[in-house]
Amino acid sequence: MKTRYIDLIEQTFDFPKDEFGLLDDRLTWNGIDLMAVIEKHGTPLRISYLPRIGQKVEQARESFRKAFREHKYVGTYDYFYCTKSNHFSYVIDKVLDKGVDLETSSAYDIEMIELLMERGRIRNDATVLCNGFKDERYVRKIGDLYKRGVRVVPIIDNMAEIYQLDEVIHGPCDIGIRIAAEEAPKFEFYTSRLGIGYKDIIPFYMRNVSKQRKFKLKLMHFFINTGISDTAYYWNELSKCVNVYCDLKKLCPTVDTLDIGGGMPIKNSLNFTFDTDYMIGEIVARIKDICTENKVDEPNIFSEFGSFTVSDSGATFFSIIHQKKQNEKERWNMIDGSFMTTLPDTWAISKRFIMLPVNNWHDEYERVFLGGMTCDSDDYYNSEQHINAIYMPRFREGKRQVIGFFNTGAYQDSLGGFGGIQHCLIPKPKHVLLDRDANGDLTDRVFAPEQSAERMLELLGYLHRSELVRK
Length: 471
Description:
Elements: H1 5-12, E1 20-23, E2 26-29, E3 32-33, H2 34-41, E4 45-49, H3 51-70, E5 77-82, H4 89-97, E6 101-104, H5 107-118, E7 127-130, H6 136-147, E8 151-156, H7 161-168, E9 173-180, E10 196-197, H8 198-209, E11 215-221, H9 232-251, E12 257-259, H10 276-293, E13 300-305, H11 307-310, E14 314-325, E15 331-335, H12 339-342, H13 344-348, E16 354-357, E17 365-371, E18 380-381, E19 390-393, E20 402-406, H14 412-416, E21 430-436, E22 442-448, H15 453-459, H16 465-470
Parallel strand pairs: 4-21, 5-6, 5-13, 6-7, 7-8, 8-9, 9-10, 9-11, 11-12, 12-13, 15-17
Antiparallel strand pairs: 1-2, 2-3, 4-14, 14-15, 14-20, 16-20, 17-18, 17-19, 21-22
C-alpha cells in the first residue's frame, strides 16, 4: 500500500515538473536545495529568486512574437511593469535590466521613478504610463515628470482629469483613456469604478479632447478585474473594447495603441494548465479580426503585467512547531508564523498558492489543517486549489517539518505591510534574495532581517530611537 507523501504526489500529479524536483526526500525549486537555504537562514523565511523575473518578461515577449508572426499582425508590442504588484528595488532593478517600462498607480510611484532617474536607472527615452484615479498630488507629480523630459502618458480615469492635467502640462503630450469595463456577474456592482463608460468615450473625445491641441489621444486602456481568462465573459468584454477602439480610430487618427492591462494568470497548483502562448495568440487574433471587420489598422499592443512578472519569484517558508489534536478527525499543524500577516491574500480573498512540504517526502502522509500563531480564528489555511484538503508528511515530535508556499512574490508585502505593525505583533519574517552570478552559481544576501520586538515597540510609541541606540 502506497502511503508515503511522495506516492500521493506522484499519483495525483505529473511530478517532478517545471521548477520543482526532488533531491532524496527534499524539495528543490529552480534547482535550489531549499533545505540548505532554510538551515542557513531559519524560518519563518521569505525568499525572492530574482532570475525568474527576467524569465517571465522574456516568456511574454516570446509569446507575443509567436502570435504576431502566426497571425501576420502589423504592429508592435511593449511590456510595461505594473509597479503596484511589488515596488521593491530588487524587482524594479530586474525589470529595468530587461528594458521594461513602468506603469504607475499613485503620486508616490512617481517619487520612486524620480529617484531612479537621478541614479541613471531609467532611460531618457522611457515611457511611463500613469494609471488610476488622480488626486491633486498625483496630477502635480505627473507634471513634474513631464517637465523632466520623460514621455509620460496619463491615462484618463475620469473626465475631469483632462482639465487638471491642463494646469500642469504646458506642451504637447500623449494621453490615453481607460475604458470602464462591465464587471463579472458575481460582482456587487455592474460597471468598474475605474475608467470611463463605453457609451461616454466618443462623446468625451469629441467634446473635450478633439478641440484642443495640447493633448493627443494615443491609446485605449482595457482591464478586466477578474483577469485574462478563456471565458465568454472575457472575450465579450475584449470585443466591446476593440470595437470602441475601432469607432474611435475612425474619428481620431492619432490613436494607435491598445493597452490590454494585466491579469495574466499565475500558477496556483501543480495541476495548473493555463497555456500562455494559446491565450496571447487568441487575444492577438481577436484584435486583428475585429479591426479587419471595421476596416481599421490593427493597433500596437501594450500590456501591464504585474503579478505575472513577479509572483513566480517569491516563496515563503514556515516550520511546523506543534500538532494539536482537537478531536478524532481534526489535526492542526501550527506554524511559526501567521497567514494573516505574512500571506494576507489567503485570509482576505481566500487565495491559494502552491503549498508543498520541503522535506520528509518519504514519510507517511496525513490530512491536516494549518494554523497560524495569532489568536484570530481566521488565521488558518485548510485547502488546496485542486482539493478541499491538505495532506502533509505525518507529524512526529522531534522531527523537523518545513512547508513552503510558492508564487507569493506579488502583493503580499504591499497588502500586509512591510516592517510595520502586524496582527498580534507577529513579526515580518527574514527576507533573503537569491540570484545567479556570471557563472550561474547561486548567491544569497539578506534583504531584511526578521522584524525585532524593539522596532515594533518603537512604532507603537513605547521606545524612542535614542533608547534603541543605547540598547
